[in-house]
Every structure is written in structure tokens, then in C-alpha cells.
Amino acid sequence: MRFLIAAGVLLASGASFAAPADSLLDAVQQRGSLKVCTTGDYKPYTFLREDKQYEGIDIALAESLAKSLGVTVEWVPTTWKTLMPDFLAGHCDMGVGGISISLERQKKAFFSDPITVDGKIPFVRCDDTDKYQTIEQLNQPSVRLIEPPGGTNEAFVHRELPKAQLELFHDNTVIFKSVAENKADVMITDASEALYQQRNYPTLCAVNPDKPLQYSEKAFLLPRDDSAFKAYVDQWLHLSKATGEYQRIADTWLAKPDE
User: Which family is this protein grouped under (predicted)?
Assistant: First the structure.
């Protein structure tokens, strides 16, 4: 009885209850497209081919997510340096392409549940693997590092390897060539990328990919405070892994050549 009286007082006074905030979950379906930011330069997760078509693990996953919503993907090109500004400016609904979860990014955005576990390792000429095993060996003035600007690789180097020489190289698709040609000694990158790229550069080796220098996880970048959209993406990802769809997509890129 007291509840009914209180409710009547609120209605009589003109008070109203706030409606649930709009979610991208609804907006995307109404629009008919899912806007996705991606760099297109990070195999095996995202790569822009010469024919202007994207491919990679996260590309296929984003297309699967869009299909589950009954919409198409609208790709939004970005770079590692401009990923967060583009995302926060609302140029896209989500970001994909081997994006590492970090606390700095978490301050400004949500992440999906982790897609995969990864970690930073040295990628070096195979003859030099013994020279670059530890942080102490890497953090020397004589060591020439090369990294793409704006991502977690550069952040790791600034934080952990401040004594080493650092060159920022803007083309992440051919950055490995600099190490192979002895123009740089080490690229710090994720184990998954190094394991994939050593297929293309037989003189380069991933150093201790099972024991990374830093633990990390990869996920989709999502808008902060949109719980409904995040819940849908997480549930879709859970089902994708449970049904084997995720593993089939990943194996297309990560299975060993002789498998």
C-alpha cells in the first residue's frame, strides 16, 4: 500500500523514470551495418590486400559477428597511433585486429572477453637468438630496436628497454625486412605475429614464444558503458568458441605449414 501511494505521489508530481539508454546493439541493427576500425597491417589478425579487401583472423570474426546481427561490415581504416582517437570520435562501433588489452585503453573503452592470450617477445635473426633472451640483454645502448608507432609494442619498449636504440617504422607490413637485412637487431612484438611472420622470413626466429617477456590478451575494442552491446559480443564470442567456429578461423592462419 505504501509503495502504491509513493508511486502515485511521483506520478502526480510529474516525475518520470529514465528510459534505458540507447545501445549500439539496437542502432547497428537499425542501420544495417557494423562500423569496424582496423589497421590492416597486422597479420595474422588484419591485413589489407592489394585488391583493397581485408583478411585475417579478426576480420573473419568481425564478419561472423555482423552476420549474427543480420548486418554487413563497414570497414573504417585506422592506424595504431590513431586507433583510440578515431574510436573515441565515434568513427566506428568497435575496433578489431589483434588489439591488446591495456589499462590505458581500458580507461577510455570497454573490451570484449579475451579472444586469445599472447605476449611480447623478441623477433630476431636466427643467428642472434642467444644474444636476446632477456630484458637485461635487450636493454643495452648497442641494441637496435624497430617498432611501429603508437601501439603496445612501442609502449613496451619505452617502459622496459629505455637504454636501447629505437627506430619507429611506419609500415608494419614490411618492418620485419629491416631485421632480416641487418638494419635493426630486434623487433619486440606479440608471439603470434612473430610465429606467423617467421614463415615469410626464414632467417628470423621468434625467441621463447612460450615464455613471453610480458603477458597480454587480445580482444575487440568496444564503447565504454554500453553494457548491452558488450554482453551481446561476449555471448557471440562464447558461442563461437564453443561451436568450434573460432578455432577453424584461427587454424586457417596459425596452423603450421606441414599440418
Answer: Belongs to the bacterial solute-binding protein 3 family.
